[in-house]
Amino acid sequence: MKTYRKNAVTAGVLYFLGTVFGVLGAIIGGEVFISLMSSKPLAGVDMLSLVAANSSQLAGGALFTLMMGILLAAMTVFLYPIIRKDSEELAMGMVLFRGALEGTWYFVTALGFFALVALGNEYIATGADSAALQSMGNVLYQLQYRLGEIGPIFFLIGAACLYISFYRSRLIPRWLSVWGLIGVVTSCINIDTGYGFYLEMVLASQEMVMAVWLIVKGFNSSAIAALFAKTE
């Protein structure tokens, strides 16, 4: 009987590195990056001048965002073979939403950041007097803002599919699966009172703990045996 040990370790490493890249992107990304990724648009500023002044930070944040997207999308490929033994539907939901759609969202978001950087640099090079470039920059910024509202939907649906399967199958301890499901619920709560970050940290911290668990412990062998018995 396969233990799927390599799948667990690889998925854990990808989870961990993806989260690290995401944190690094947030740290170095700068004001514009944070405003878009947190869906809190800036108002009353010369957008392209601000982008140009923080172009290196924004480009760095975009690069780390792209790397995070690649790693987290790849993670679903390694979890799929074992998750599908519990439920084909939940496995496909995880791959579709946390893999394909979320990965595509990260890719498009990163491209949008790079495009903003290019526009900002061109805006400064032309003497900061191009109304056409300024309009293009504002449109692209608003598009990035709207994308920032869509991405979490893909993430949360995919995460829900994963944690429901983990809870059902007991591949990881149920307390860890319940923690993940609670994190999904708290992340769905959209409030602007300053607590949104802390609610999102419920799931962020859970995923780091789960990543370490997968690397160190792997999947529950008795749960794997039960899944094989069910599918025979």
Could you characterize what this model shows?
- The protein has helices at 5-28, 30-37, 47-53, 55-83, 88-125, 131-169, 174-188, 196-216, 221-231.
- With 232 residues, it is an all-alpha fold.
- The protein is elongated, with a radius of gyration of 20 Å.
- The two termini are 12 Å apart.
- The model has no long low-confidence stretch (mean pLDDT 87).
State the main characteristics.
mainly alpha, elongated
Radius of gyration: 20 Å
In total, the number of strands is 0
Helix content: over 70%
Principal-axis shape equals elongated
Q: State the helix count.
A: 9
Strand percentage, roughly? under 5%
What is the average of the pLDDT values? 87
Catalogue the unreliable spans. Answer: none
First-residue to last-residue Cα separation:
12 Å
Helix-strand makeup class? mainly alpha
SSE pattern: HHHHHHHHH
Describe the largest sheet. none
